[in-house]
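Regression test case RT-17, inverse folding.

Input:
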């Protein structure tokens, strides 16, 4: 699947999800940011 097609579909689904479940989206974004931060720091901390 082409990334040019995936990005608008993901944006559309995320926009609908934010309208329907705004509190759940806050948790999803928080966990995503924590996960991204940890995975970004692990190579720096390991060596």
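Golden output:
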């Amino acid at each position: 699947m082409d990334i040019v097609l995936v990005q608008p579909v993901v944006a559309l689904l995320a926009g609908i999800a934010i309208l329907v479940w705004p509190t759940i989206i806050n948790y999803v974004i928080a966990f995503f940011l924590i996960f991204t931060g940890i995975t970004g720091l692990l190579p720096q901390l390991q060596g």
